[in-house]
Every structure is written in C-alpha cells, then in structure tokens.
Amino acid sequence: MDGQWFRRFGDPEPDALKLICFPHAGGAASAYQQLYRRLRPHVEVLAVQYPGRQDRRLETPAADIGELAAMIAGKLADGETAAPFAFFGHSMGALVAYETARLLEERGVPAPRRLFLSARGAPGPRRSPHDVLPDDEAILAAVRRLGGTGVALLDDPELVAMVLPALRADYAALAAYSWTPREPLHMPVSVLCGDADPVVSVEEASGWRAFTRAETEVRVFPGGHFYVDQRLDDVAEVVLRGVRSVSAARAGNGACDDRTPVSDVRG
Predict the structure, then answer these.
(1) Per residue in 134-164, pLDDT tens?
(2) 96 in helix, strand or coil?
(3) Which distant-in-sequence residues (6+ apart) come within 8 Å of 205 by Cβ?
(4) Which of 63, 139, 248, 261 has the most CB atoms around its CB within 10 Å?
(5) In angstroms, rounded to a whole number, what is the distance separating the alpha carbons of residues 6 and 29?
(6) Is the dihedral of CA 136, 223, 230, 259 positive or negative?
(7) Measured between alpha carbons, how far is 23 from 124 in angstroms, rounded to an integer?
(8) What is the pLDDT, as a whole number, of residue 94?
(9) What is the mean pLDDT of residues 34-60?
C-alpha cells in the first residue's frame, strides 16, 4: 500500500485482517497508535495520512470530503488491496470512511467488509451547522467544545499555529461536502458514539442504519465527542469482535455473533 497515504504501526501478523483508520478533523495518522496497541497482534492497523498535515503539510489539502474520499479510494483500488479489510473512522473520518467505502463498492473493486463509524451523525440533504464555521476563531471554539486529550494544546500559540492549517482545511472540506443519495451499502456497520457528545446525538448517529442493507449495531459509551480517549479498551473490544465476525465469514463459518442488529447498546 502507498506509504505516503497509509501509515502502518508495527509489522503485520500473517493473515491479519487490515483495519484502515480515518482521522478526525485536524487529526493525523498518529491518532490511531493507541488503538493499534490494543488490537495487536490480531489486527493490522493502518491509518490514513491526509495531505496538508505533519509530514504532508506542504501538500494541498482536499477541497471537500468527496474529493478526499476519491483520492483514498483510488489509492486502495490501484494498490489492489487484498480483502478482507475493514474501515474505522472517527468524526470527520467516519464521513470519509463511508464515502470511500461507497466509491469502492460502486467501482466493483474490493471494499471493506465492515464499517466502524464513530462520533458522527449520518449525512443528509442539509449540512450540519457544526461543519460550517465562519473563521479561525469559530473553529478553535468548536475544537475546545469537543474536548479531548489534546485540547490543552490550544493554550500554546505556537502549537495553535501548527495545527490551525489542517483544522482550517478540514472544516472547509466539511463545509463544502454535499451528500448525494445512493443505493445502501452491502456491508455491516458498527456505529459508536458518546452519550454526552455535544454535537452528535444518539439519534443522529443511529441514522446510519439506513445506509446499509446489512446489519447495524449501535454502541453508546459514556463520554463526549472523544469518548474513545476514556473507553479505548471497550472500543477495541467492539472492533475486535467485529473483525472476528469478518474473519469467520471469510472462513465460511457464517457471521459469528454480530448477525443480529443491536440498537443503543450501552457500553
């Protein structure tokens, strides 16, 4: 796989299923190092490094979510990624993961066997007001509201200057995103969210059910938008269970214990 776009943590185990992870707005591939540590050696974690941040900071960021998804889908299709693999996306990353999966299915090339969509409501005809922010001050205020372990970095002007270009580009991409109705996907979806998320309600997150013909589970955890920081072990358990269901299906043994749709399961 293209090492510029997909960052691998550690050496993969033989026959390990790939979990391709999509960062949140302003985030980078390194955001998934802790999840990798929880999932090794059972899962090979790769994280997408979007252009316009860290070692890709001199590259032009994607203008909108659809463009970013198209670039990632192109890299996956060109690399002839061997199935099976799964996607995990948090916040903006959930939207990018969904659009990338949709493009892969439409092109008839290997697509993820499962989607894990975290801290993001399902898209619709109207843009989320939390995605359309008028200036840098509003963006920084939104990031503070979302919280997370890195929010204290916003008190350092030098660090703000470093992260603001990526945040600005990602919020511009979100504001430019226009959802187009398509046929539902054919892969199972696990929806994860926090019960105190200030921008995504459980009802909004549950809206992803309509986006697939396969089963959907909704897992609700205590916490806010970055509930994952406090519930990483529980999230890793959900991911590992979903990955094992994919592996069981690959072996011809059925879909393990994830075949029954689950609604609002409190973790």
Answers:
(1) 999 999 999 999 987 678 788 899 989 999 9
(2) helix
(3) 117, 119, 120, 121, 122, 191, 192, 193, 218
(4) 139
(5) 8
(6) negative
(7) 21
(8) 98
(9) 95
Q: Which residues pair with 47 in a beta bridge?
A: 7, 21
Tokens standing for 55? 């070692």
Helices (H), ranges, 31-111: 33-39, 65-78, 92-107
Q: Which residues contact 217 (CB under 8 A, 6 or more apart)?
A: 188, 189, 190, 191, 258, 261, 262, 263, 265
User: Is 178 one of the annotated active-site residues of the chain?
Assistant: no
Count of other CB atoms within 10 angstroms of residue 163: 20
pLDDT at 254: 46
Lookup: tokens for 141:
């205020």
Give pLDDT, residue 250: 66
pTM for this prediction: 0.92
Q: Is the pLDDT at 220 greater than 60, yes or no?
A: yes
Task: State how far the Cα of 105 lies from the Cα of 101, in Å rounded to an integer.
Answer: 6
Pairing mode, if any, of strands 262-266 and 216-221? parallel
> Would you call 42 exposed, middle or buried from its count of C-beta atoms within 10 A (0-12, 13-18, 19+)?
middle
Query: Of 30, 91, 178, 190, which residue is the catalytic one?
Result: 91
User: How far, in Å, CA of 112 to CA of 106, rounded?
Assistant: 12
Strands (E), 81-198: 85-90, 114-118, 189-194
- Of 122, 48, 116, 108, the closest CA to residue 87 belongs to 116
